[in-house]
Amino acid sequence: MRLCSLLILTFFTTMSCKNTGPSAEDQKMAQLDPVQTEAVDGYERAYFASGCFWCVEAVFESVKGVKEAVSGYSGGTIKNPTYKQVSYGKTNHAEAVAVFYDPKVISFRNLVLVFFGSQDPTTLNRQGPDRGRQYRSIAFYQNSDQKKIIEDIIAELNETVYDDQIVTQVLPFQKFWQAEGYHQNYERNNPKDPYIQGVSIPRLNRFKKQFPELLKDNAH
């Protein structure tokens, strides 16, 4: 069960991260050149963080053109991070997903819209009941075109929806570390988990209601 499950929400509310702004490590990473990944069998990769990776993985896997989403860690510099290290805030990594997608079916821009449309990008270091920098919102870019797409969408949403309150970080992608095997497809494999019932499924359903045109046929 997640360390930030509903059963121990009160504990994590009192233990929320004290450093509410970008860390020194964030600031250093923001100055790095992005790493461009190569397509695999025609599928490109995009990387996002917006809270519980169980939730984010399920959202992206419901989208047309997405082959799969893989849960993992990104945004920090520690090599081979573990779930225990990340969950306890021992690293600067955030829970993240790698999205394998067919650019002929869905564009990077639409993936960014999915990213913003499936979270609250105005809650600093928090998403739903999960609190701490490991749950912060990050859109990773691999080149200048992706960075511009992300920044343009943020500007548009700040003007039309969020009144300049978006706190999502925009960082150059460096490295993605795949999470332990039991985290992969967790929502699908553990439908009776209290966290899945109380947080992940409602979050997925809210996204489906907002973006029905982007859903795979079997995701409706």
From TrEMBL:
<dbReference type="InterPro" id="IPR002569">
    <property type="entry name" value="Met_Sox_Rdtase_MsrA_dom"/>
</dbReference>
<comment type="similarity">
    <text>Belongs to the MsrA Met sulfoxide reductase family.</text>
</comment>
<dbReference type="GO" id="GO:0008113">
    <property type="term" value="F:peptide-methionine (S)-S-oxide reductase activity"/>
</dbReference>
<dbReference type="Pfam" id="PF01625">
    <property type="entry name" value="PMSR"/>
</dbReference>
<keyword id="KW-0560">Oxidoreductase</keyword>
<dbReference type="GO" id="GO:0033744">
    <property type="term" value="F:L-methionine:thioredoxin-disulfide S-oxidoreductase activity"/>
</dbReference>
<protein>
    <recommendedName>
        <fullName>Peptide methionine sulfoxide reductase MsrA</fullName>
        <ecNumber>1.8.4.11</ecNumber>
    </recommendedName>
</protein>
<feature type="active site">
    <location>
        <position position="52"/>
    </location>
</feature>
<comment type="function">
    <text>Has an important function as a repair enzyme for proteins that have been inactivated by oxidation. Catalyzes the reversible oxidation-reduction of methionine sulfoxide in proteins to methionine.</text>
</comment>
<feature type="domain" description="Peptide methionine sulphoxide reductase MsrA">
    <location>
        <begin position="46"/>
        <end position="195"/>
    </location>
</feature>
<dbReference type="InterPro" id="IPR036509">
    <property type="entry name" value="Met_Sox_Rdtase_MsrA_sf"/>
</dbReference>
